[in-house]
Amino acid sequence: MNEAYNLAIGMSGFPSPTLTDVILGKGSSASVNGELRLLLSQLSASRGLEATWLDPGPSPRTYGRGDDLIVQNITRRISLERNVSGLESLDGSIISEMEGESTIDRLRRQIDLDRKSIHLLCRELEEERNAAAIAANQALAMITRLQDEKAAMQMEASHYQRMMEEQAEYDGEALAEANELLAQREDQIQELEAELEKCWTQSGGGGPTEKEDNQLPFEEQHSTAALLEDERAYISESLRKLEKKLHLYSNNNTSTDLSNSDAIEGTQESILLAKGEADLSTFQEEISSLNKRLKTLEGDRDFLEHSINSLKNGKEGAQFIREIACNLRELRAIAIESK
């Protein structure tokens, strides 16, 4: 910087535009650019260095595009500093120029402005770097999180797929077992039907067909039940009459015992007494047989009621009635053979 100042002092004899002319654009822009280029070239020649401000390439500094960019950068930084800081106004520049501000002071001010501009640029660059680093870290974190979520979802999907496969396999096994059990039931039904046909054949009857079983007349069943009810009522009435007669004979026997105490003995009374005792034993036997028959009829009535109710269940009820009829025929055949 000292060399630049000395060179600037040495160049004090050259006519150069003022700072106000540079800022306001007064004078020829070509002359301003030419003087700045000359100053930069002398600085570079005195130090023997390459320009590193905007063109860091290996070629030495020459008059060209790099100088234009440097000049534009300097003018832009001067105007930027003027607008940002607000420390220097147009009137102040005119006043300072009018007071006899030298070129060295202008260059010093320009260097200060450039330093401030460079500092601001470095700070902005650092902020941009920090923001870029933060954004990159956030992007990496998001990518990592998305990869973790993707892995978790893939693991969960594979788990559910494995569960579904196991469930499908279990359902297939259960379905196969159900089909096998159904086939066994069908075989058992066929065996029972064959055995039933065999029983019907052995009993001597062709056996009712399924159509006939479905068309069993309910009126016949109801008429049979009505006949059983009538017979039951008749037996009950007979039992009541026999009980009255038995009660009457028992009273006669008591009165006969009382008359025996009075020493009334006759041939006709003794005959009547013997006949009454015989009738009493006969009545008792008849009452016991009627009671047995009544119980049998009640059982038959219950059986018929269950049979009628089972016929309402369709094929199962008809199958049940056929089995009962087959068993009854077998019992009847056994009873006939035993006789």
Automatic annotation (TrEMBL):
PROSITE patterns: GTD_BINDING (PS51775). Keywords: Coiled coil, Membrane, Transmembrane, Transmembrane helix. It comes from the Eukaryota. Residues 102-200 form the GTD-binding domain. Residues 136-198, 273-307 form a coiled coil. It is found in: Membrane. The keyword Membrane applies. InterPro entries: GTD-bd, MYOB. GO terms for molecular function: myosin XI tail binding. It is a single-pass membrane protein. GO terms for cellular component: membrane. It holds the Pfam family Zein-binding. This is GTD-binding domain-containing protein.
